[in-house]
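Box 3.1. Reading complex inputs
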Amino acid sequence: MPRHYRTCNLCEATCGITIETEGRRIVSIEADQADPLSRGYICPKAYALKDVYEDEDRIRRPMIRREGTWREVSWDEAIARAAAGLHEAQRRHGPDALATYIGNPTGHNLPAFLALPAFLRMLGTHNRFSASSVDQFPKMLAVYLMFGAQLSVPVPDVDRSDYLLVLGANPLVSNGSLMTAPGMKWRLREIRQRGGRVVVIDPRRSETAQAASEHLFVKPGSDALLLMALLATLFEEGLGSLGAAEGRVIGLEALQAMVAPFAAERVSAAVGIQAGDIRRLAREFCAAPSAACYTRIGTCVQEYGTLANWLGDALNVVSGNLDKPGGVMFPQPAASYSGKGSYKRWRSRIRRLPEFGGELPVACLSEEIETPGSGQVRALVTMGGNPALSTPNGARLESAMASLDFMVSIDPALNETTRLADVLLPPRSPLENTQYSLVFHKLAVRDTAKLCRPVFEPEPGSWSEWEILAALSAELIRLRSLDSVAAGGPPIENPTATHFATTPDLFISMLLGSGPYGLSLADIEAVPSGIDLGPLKEGGIERQVRHEDGKIRLMHEDIENEALRLAAALDGGAFTKHDDAPDAFLLIGRRQLRTNNSWMHNCRTLIKGPERCTLLMHPSDASRLGLKHGCAVTVTSRVGSVALPLDVTDEMMPGVVSIPHGFGHTRKGTRMRNAAAKPGVSINDLTDESVTEGLCGNGILTGVRVCVNASERAIV
Ligand code: SF4
């Protein structure tokens, strides 16, 4: 039976797996014990690759929707129709009339990842959006400001760390995010076994918190204050030293001055942690032989998200833990494909939110579609995304998308978003493509290199994203050229022709050849489980700090302004002023082991078992409201209301409730039958698109003000 060595493409952890096949069937999926990064770890989701591949609901042929009815068509007809609709929107209303939304599976699929930049450049629109502005822009902007590039992310060297401080992350379940760390269950245990400490700060006693040495509840949205106080303690008590960053920083004194007003005693009530504990954490962190502060999604999806993430790395730098084994280090991948990024080159038309990395925050997409005037979005291309469920106030965006003149979705799922498209272009399964992760090797806690050849020959008549975007580009340019000639101008050359004349294999080959290890495709193919390039390496400051002078910025004007805003909010009581109503709560999301995003809810093996879309609430709150475990509750925010079952648990901080993300499969017209059988509710029918993170416009998905009451509504 053929055995294939692959990387699981379902999440950022990139675990090594082996897949046995018989004909076009997957017979078994197992952990690859020889994979040097994942060391034999996989999670239950890996088995769902079989479900995803064999899913009868997966769209395999292009389709066109007319008057509410889908019809399978040839690729030629679909591409012609898609290009004509997109071209018409731009011809009549200008380049910005076309918007794009890219979902996160694109980062896991080489043909899509390599094809996108050329395609997006060719479209020429400023209205580009992606899932990055849902949950990770603040972390990327923080490293952009501090280190000079949006993917210069130092990752915790968890395999050698003596102290791991985790804020707003649940790596035991996620296996890392913007930190590729498969098998965190083992890695966390090993930290403790070698005498180290894991401390988790979270409004929920998450799975990671349960495995940690210590867990402290924190009020949702107050992480920036806590990090300010940790830094203030460090400076006040003279605990830090720059270590490898000595002589390589600018702004140390300004940082010290900025954090000084945020003493532990001053922020304690606002963050919900005793001042003595805050000071103790700062001392422990600085006294540990090596320590790493890891800030992730919970710290991103709040008002001071960029500031919080920036402070997390500032703590790593001034405690001497940047570029130090066991601290936070810059991976050195065998091949790399990322630019420095950009910030504020343009702004959104209505709310004036800033561009970051060539994109605008998706929180403003609905108003850009709904508001008439020059630059109004009239057409949309989505690729591998489901913004109707995954972005703030998804219901408003859903209705805005339904009003578009034209929409194309490049997606194998007929989901809550793609059902609104006029043309659906389904790419072939990632298992039928060669894969090499240009993104996640760059974020991994160990340097490795792994190439995965296709498990199956492509299904006859199937196209990859590379072929789809190449064909769409060529047809769009052909239409533009016809217009130009008709207007008496010259024909237009296809600017993407050179890009698409090459192949993903050639790209990888060139990137590997120019990489630090000088590897070839053949070198990597010869080791099917992946080449081990060793633990993270020192010298990352020289390699990855990309400001022209090579110096780390410990101060930036925007960060300073955010700190002033934070101080004013603290003084104004924003963190302590509670709604007097007894049914008022702060809502947070949560990640679950058996799901990732909305698209995995159609996997039969993953959705079986108990209801997972429940509202978590502390027993004292439930008792005060007279609510019983298992009863139905209604949760209401400024933008909407949902009804779901109540799960009473002391995992939750009193006053805080939690709903997992990605559910809400109740919309008509989808083809996700398993998901629809256990639909749950969408947390983004409660989150508010009108409020955004201060510097980059990321959505605010944590600490959302809601009311909870016994429900009279039936739960679907
Ligand atoms: S953690 Fe699970 S879903 Fe993620 S890559 Fe590993 S096996 Fe796949």
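In summary: The mean pLDDT is 96.
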